[in-house]
Amino acid sequence: MQYMVCEVQYGGRITDALDRELMNCYTALWINENIFTPGYNFMASVTEFIYQIPDAQEHTKYMEYINEMPGSDNPPIFGLHPNADLTCSLKDSLNMINTMLDTQPKDSGGSGGKSKEEEVRDKIEKDLLP
């Protein structure tokens, strides 16, 4: 099953060697002999939601379990520190602000010698920082 998931299903989509190694690591963590044990909890340290294979025969029971799953998973379910989510959000915010600055017009105006980038940066700093 690990080979099927890592190499067959995602093999052509993962081009970076480190990404492939990470996928193999997660697959070894999530797909192993323990999943056949009734009531097996994938990550016992995560208490917000119990990640396990439902003990059911009906398709509707599986769908009910899937619909109960959280919309987004917290970093600990992947073995990451809880601050990983904060770090990711900060990086995304910085990328968005830099993209906004890069797409601003580059013409110079008579606004006291400041470029458009400096004006936008100053406005964002004023609005966002206490």
What features would you describe in this structure?
- The radius of gyration is 23 Å and the shape is elongated.
- 50% of the residues lie in helices and 0% in strands.
- The chain is an all-alpha fold and 130 residues long.
- It folds into three domains: 1-31, no CATH class; 39-80, no CATH class; 83-128.
List the helices and strands and how they pair.
Layout: H1 2-9, H2 17-30, H3 59-68, H4 83-102, H5 116-128
Q: Return Rg in Å.
A: 23 Å
Give the structural class: mainly alpha
* Largest β sheet strand count, sense and barrel closure: none
Number of domains: 3
Distance N to C terminus = 52 Å
Strand content: under 5%
Task: Count every helix, treating DSSP H or I runs of 4 or more residues as helices.
Answer: 5
Number of DSSP-assigned strands: 0
- Overall mean pLDDT stands at 83
Oligomer state of the chains in this structure: single chain
Question: What is the molecular shape?
Answer: elongated
- Give start-end ranges of low-pLDDT stretches: none
Helix content: 40-55%
What pattern of helices and strands is seen along the backbone? HHHHH
